[in-house]
Amino acid sequence: MLEEIRTTEQDDLVINVGPQHPSTHGVLHLVITLNGETIKKVEPHLGYVHRSIEKMCESLTYRQFILTTSRMDYLSAHINNHCCVLCVEKGLQLDVPPRAQVIRILMDELTRIASHVLWWGAFAMDLGAITPFFHAFREREVINDIMEETCGTRLTMNYMMPGGVMYDLHPNFQKRVHEFIKLFKSKLPEYHELVTNNVIFQERTKGVGMLSYEDAISYGCSGPAARGSGVSSDIRKLYPYEIYNQLQFEECLEYGCDSFARYQVRMNEMMQSLSIVEQLIDNIPEGDIQAKTKAVIKLPKGEFYSRVESARGEFGVYIVSEGGTTPYRIKFRSPGFSNLSALDQMARGQKIGDLVAMMGSLDLVIPDIDR
Amino acid sequence: MWSFSKIAGIIDNWLNQTFSPAIALTIEMVLVGVLVIGLFALLGLVLVIMERKVSAYMQIRLGPNRVGPKGMLQSLADTLKLMVKEGLTPKGADKFLFNLAPFVAMIGAMLVMAPIAFARNFQMWDLNIGVLYITAISSLSVIAILIAGWASNNKYSLLGAMRSGAQIVSYELSAGLSILAIVVLTGSLQLSDIINAQANGWWIFKGHIPVVVAFVIFLVTVTAETNRAPFDLAEAESELTAGFHTEYSGMKFALFFLAEYINVFIVCAIGATLFLGGWMPLHIGSWQGFNHVMDYIPSSLWFFGKTFFLIFVIMWFRWTFPRLRIDQLLNLEWKYLLPISMFNLLLITIMAIMGWHF
To answer: Where does the UniProt annotation place the signal sequence (chain B) (predicted)?
Structure first.
């Protein structure tokens, strides 16, 4: 820490990026030390959207606390909820009906696509191209509409519950998803044409924000941020949950270690998610959507941990139970927090304009970092 | 045929008959001044609504559609809002310079307007060094930006201003060289001479590939000089929030905004004048009938049509490309555009001496 302070000299320019800044996507506060346009140090300050969700969860029942996690990483609300119900089910040793499992995976993957599409638009906007943002929202709207029909809401769905899912699928679901698959396959080449193949975009992202294989591991990065550096970290492959081990999909790895590699991981992941949706959409088994559970859930005494692959990386839920109706202690492992910690390492010696590109390539959602 | 020059002639005659020459001249100058300011305000309004509509079209949106028919009066409402808004001067700012900067930006933009020919025989000041005057005055805009960045007492503004300084100073070289290409071909610095030289065909058609190259370089460099995306590093919304005008509000901000759009209009007007023949109608060789029909379109319409086409192209750039980084921006200028335009100028000089152009 002392060494950190010493690196700030008298002639350095110290700038506060945020908490209100257009490219921090929320209320992240970065204190950056500049030498001209070159970054010497980046110091993230947290706490602006701290809602003490973990403490709050201690007074909520096992059915209620799930809903708070939608408010953390609001772009992958389904996946967060999924992790919570997995943890509770682990404690109850509950078998989930196959139909519910398939529905959960379908929703997860649609959420992942929606999240990555939004990230694509926001990343391009960080680099100064505003138009892709609107194109991204065009496709995201379709997914939101599908979600709205089945779950009733568009952002914080609260669809997962211990033992299964809340409601059955809407009759239109399959038709609408088929339409979406067709639409998205026609739009993805446009994305590549507009952004990926753009010379300026490649100049801005290639060789920028280098995060080596070793650093990615030592900072605890996960998700596309780690896979862009060649670290195999897909929880769906490494610790399969639900029926992921029966599905055909690939873990997207890139070895460029730069922003462009992370960009490509996400673009490829969208295709993989789409292929998972394609595999499942016509094979949804009939049957129950919920396992029988008691009205008041009590977890046995012990510690439970579950993890899923959210759109940003590994999301984990750790519950300590004393046998009551509420958790004794709860801890969420959010991917954004670890990914953000690598920002300083990535940004040193780079230009201030690239800081935005690096932050964008990490896909930070601030309420996820700052619970 | 209807043209501005007739109306101007009638007014001139009437004034000279009614008043003594000195008073008539004074009144004419005041009239021109009022007209320029009026044109400024009008252009600002039109360009803002045009940009918003163009961007909306490219981004699958509707754009402003509430105020007036199809939202056409939106920018009027915005202007009213900016006028009644409080103009803040931040604490610790250099008050005099802070308030001076928007006016410097405005006056710089206004002065460049003087030698532009809006229609046949409709020019405020046809001075014999028109091109030189334009290049000289248009570099004043960087002073306004530097003043604004320095006086704001804001680190973001300072960074933006410094970037802008480096950018405009370097891109002026290529812009100047590509303008010189036309000067070499015409053999005159006077804008009316340049336009008259294009009576039998615009330079972009007459000058073979070197002039097309010069035109492309001109478009790129003026986009950079007017601080518009993909070269909007001085503003760089996602990095520096708004760069040099972060601290400005109300009408002072509006003046910067207006100056930017006027600068866009001016550089496009110059591009249209030098490369696309200004108010000259499109003539194709010996097609007499076609040429006659083209002559019937008023010359002012030709000028504004070409200018607005170029403005559209520059807006198209803005809504398509990501922003460059400062070192990439300077690399592009010093390593690519400058050598190319120097070599290009050499080619054009040879072409002009040998008389190879049409």
So the answer is: none
Give residue B244's domain range. Answer: 85-354
CB contact under 8 A, B237 and A354: no
Q: A15 touching B, CB under 8 A? A: yes
**Using CB atoms, which residue from B232, B237, B239 is nearest to A352?**
B239
- What's the CA gap between A222 and A229, in Å, rounded? 10
CA end-to-end distance (rounded Å), chain A? 25
Q: Write the ipTM.
A: 0.80
At position A56, the amino acid (one-letter code) is M
User: In tens digits, what is the pLDDT along chain B, a chain of 358 residues?
Assistant: 455 667 777 888 888 888 888 888 888 888 878 887 888 888 888 888 888 888 888 888 888 888 878 888 888 888 888 888 887 888 888 888 888 888 888 888 888 888 888 777 777 777 888 888 888 888 888 888 888 888 888 888 888 888 888 888 888 888 888 888 888 888 888 888 888 888 777 877 777 788 888 889 998 888 888 888 788 877 766 677 777 788 888 888 888 888 888 888 888 988 888 888 878 777 777 777 777 777 777 878 888 888 999 999 988 888 888 888 888 888 888 899 899 999 988 988 888 888 776 6
Q: Is residue A291 part of a domain?
A: yes
From start to end of A288-338, where are the E strands?
302-309, 314-321, 329-333
Question: Smallest Cα–Cα separation from B75: which of B57, B59, B52, B58?
Answer: B52
B155 within domain boundaries: yes
CB-based contacts of B14: which residues, under 8 Å, 6+ apart?
Answer: none
Whether B268 is in a domain gets the answer: yes
Give the nearest partner residue to A351 out of B59, B237, B325, using CB atoms: B325
Which candidate in B54, B152, B163, B238 is best for mutational testing of the A interface (most A CBs within 10 A)? B238
Inter-chain residue contact A134 with B59, CB threshold 8 Å: yes
Q: Evaluate whether A73 touches A310 at the Cβ level (below 8 Å).
A: yes
Cβ contacts of B328 on chain A, cutoff 8 Å: 200, 203-204
User: What is the number of structural domains in chain B?
Assistant: 1
Q: Is residue B78 part of a domain?
A: no
